[in-house]
From TrEMBL, chains A, B:
The keyword Acetylation does not apply. It comes from Orchesella dallaii. InterPro entries: DYNLRB1/2, Roadblock/LAMTOR2_dom. Acts as one of several non-catalytic accessory components of the cytoplasmic dynein 1 complex that are thought to be involved in linking dynein to cargos and to adapter proteins that regulate dynein function. Cytoplasmic dynein 1 acts as a motor for the intracellular retrograde motility of vesicles and organelles along microtubules. The keyword Magnesium does not apply. Residues 7-95 form the Roadblock/LAMTOR2 domain. The lineage of its organism: Eukaryota, Metazoa, Ecdysozoa, Arthropoda, Hexapoda. Keywords: Cytoplasm, Cytoskeleton, Dynein, Microtubule, Motor protein, Transport. This is Dynein light chain roadblock. It is found in: Cytoplasm, Cytoskeleton. It comes from the Eukaryota. Pfam families: Robl_LC7. Belongs to the GAMAD family.
Length: 100, 100
């Protein structure tokens, strides 16, 4: 199981980056276990990113069963959504690319 | 409607990048209209990326109806899949990040 201080360290490091506007950590069921955003938005991001992760993973496996998804970066008009999937959890970071 | 020479120029420029291993252009129905890869793989990428685009777009709209998806980057163990959605088509590029 992942040590919580490892996650804390990672969160601190990420939040120190200029341009980071939000961060959510979700468990393997897609439930937010840590967030810098208010609850309703965290739950929304958690639900949407969980579906996106499922779709992306199945796409990669479909194309090559020996391959694996390691990172997602969605660029939008307003910001960037970064998703880092790990075994027990996934980290979601929202940042303004122009400031980062 | 997009001028085909614009697409040709973009394709030539992308293919000149070191590390690019494949490129597929799909129309708004998800049908491959140009590809550097053999047909079966092009059709597979087209189908999978079309679903990924639909999911990503709906996710972004769900979170903020005034926002729009502009680019997707999926990093995998073996390579990177880049998806650039435009109005009438989408460009899919597969590249080896270590060589690019």
């Amino acid at each position: 199981m992942l040590q919580s201080n490892e996650v804390e360290e990672a969160i601190k490091r990420i939040l120190s980056h200029k341009g980071v506007v939000g961060l959510v950590v979700i468990n393997h069921e897609g439930i937010p276990i840590k967030s810098t955003m208010e609850n309703a938005l965290s739950v929304q991001y958690a639900a949407q990113v969980t579906q996106l992760l499922d779709k992306s993973r199945s796409m990669i496996k479909e194309l090559d069963s020996n391959n694996d998804l390691t990172f997602i970066r969605l660029r939008t008009k307003k910001h960037e959504v970064l998703v880092c999937p790990e075994k027990d959890y996934a980290m979601i970071v929202i940042q303004n690319p122009t400031e980062s």
